[in-house]
Amino acid sequence: MNMKNFKKQFPLLEQYTYLNTAASGLLSDDVLEFRQDHDLDFLVGGSLFREKRDELFLKTRKAVGALFGCAANRVALTPNFSYGFNLLMEGMEASKKVLLLRNDYPSVNWAVESRGFKICYAEIDGNLEENIAEAVEKHKPDIFAFSLVQYINGIKIDPDFLLKLKEQYPELLLFADGTQYCGTEKFNFEASALDVLGASAYKWLNAGYGNAFFLFKEHMQEKIAPKGLELKDLQGKNKPHKGSFIGKFEPGHLDTLNFGSLKTAIDLINNTGMDEIELRIKDLAAVAKKELSELNLLEPAVVNRKLHSSIFNIKGDEKLFQKLRSNKILCSMRGDGIRVSFNYFNSVADLEKLLKNIN
Prior knowledge:
Pfam families: Aminotran_5. This protein is an alpha/beta fold. It has 14 helices and twelve strands.
């Protein structure tokens, strides 16, 4: 699929230079078409339409599992990351000690801090991995909960480091938020160090709002017991089996519109090619990092790291932010600067337009 076709799927790109996937992905033509058909089917089908939903959820779980390397019966569909993560932490014994990253995404830290766990912290800076290793050695936590990519400045944790950490501390449970990561590169959950991965799909997967997923390693079934969630009678046929582990994360009805949107968004990713998406994002991120570094717009912690995402926080104030916006460049004020993020539908021309408007 060439650049023109990427852009064609996302009509907003004709109006704006969109450097804001880290805040919200875009609605594609494919997802819009699915949503219109879905509501039409419901309109004319009523309960006949409802009969097909179990099949839809099964297809969605399979699509998520295939894309991220996880068995479909260990994929839970949740309305958003926070919902699933709060359920997960509710199922953990309060006596556990949890390692967090200071100033990580509030949805990660609040879910832990508000529940009375013993907590220790590691700092997010250029030495992120060393900070984590030291904190694990010193505090001996039971769980490490963290974002794979930091939302403020795009600092990305090294997956090889996580594998080594897991090798050294096999009992340490790794719970990751992949909301700023999933959809940016190939990822195999089963081969990773993670025990649980959750992600909202409205950012890099461009799946719209109200859909997220959680992936679990097999052994997590014995480790989680969300109290009062044995809703066996509410768990219909769309669960892998009645009263199942995954069912605990899916009480009640799921939304056919939103999870169908997720399935359609994954189909678009597969048609585009995850290899192609990863390559485009990595190439563009490397050029952006080089150009932004040369203009002294990035913090040293980011400049000095080998590994980085395609999210950057550049020096800038409200005035520059408004100037960019008036020139139809969409980004976000985050932390002490302006956050820009590059997805596969972006181009070097978008970066050049940004640089031209900064100077």
